[in-house]
Design goal:
It is built from 15 helices and five strands. By secondary structure, it is of the alpha/beta class. It is an enzyme of class 2 (transferase).
Amino acid sequence: MNWYPWLNTPYRHLVGQYAAGRGHHALLVHAVPGNGDAALLYALGRWLICQQRKGEKSCGECHSCRLMLAGNHPDYHILAPEKGKSSLGVEPVRQVIEILYSHAQQGGAKVVWLSQAELLTEAAANALLKTLEEPPANTYFLLGCSDPSRLLATLRSRCFYWHLASPDEQLGLRWLDRQNGGDPIVRLTALRLHGGAPIAAEALLKLEQWQQRASLCNALSAALPQCDMLMLLPVLNHDDVAERLHWLCALLLDALKWQQGAASYVMNQDQLMLVQQLAQRLSSSSLQQIMQKWLNCRHQLLSISGVNRELLLTEQLLSWEQMIGCAP
């Protein structure tokens, strides 16, 4: 698994707590997607399970380390939704819990890694609660999440919460420069659109993704003067609609920043003309109302199974036309 320079400090801090005997058996790491929390938790898991630690590093040579590197350590358990499912049900959780109460096969620590704790169903979370409260000896739970509010309060209360902040913007930009090069304004835009998370920004900068965003920006720029917001439907109505609505809402939020004289904080630094166009075309109250409607739309698309995506998007676009006086 790749390692990232901004993880060095949090890794040393967390390992230091465990080395000093102050580490919690259940660690909940909250991070913006694309900040490398999976790499951080994997490295911590390797250190916990290593049998011949070298200070803050796992040795990489003991039998446990070799099993970890091979991806088949019997005391390292990964909890994740089954292929094709968007949630983690109770049965896999029960199976892991049953295994945890047997002896560690390698005689050392037992580690459970759950990369997206918010995907636990309520039944699965409840099944995990008692074990988190009274875990078997030398057992550690490493949980990642991007939205702690979606977790049961009782589950959060049994974990040690750690916020993995995005790296300093200049550090993120330097890392992106080494990965991609190119236009610094483009890199800055990609980084800000993902809350400063460099790995997510790198994914956005891939040619196909970046072209999709450009298509949305071009369609919006053309639709505004013609008062024909339905021009956006073909570029929004895709399986990755949540990501595209995120781009759209970021433009609306940037227009509000522009109106308040905060242009230096604009996310879409490569689309300043479009941001200015939105700021001049719409009042602050209209921008706020439109953005809230799109956020509600995005939530419905993500949370309601079987929703008619095209119909919902069409309704929102027609509502936008009415709000800005485009409808006859």
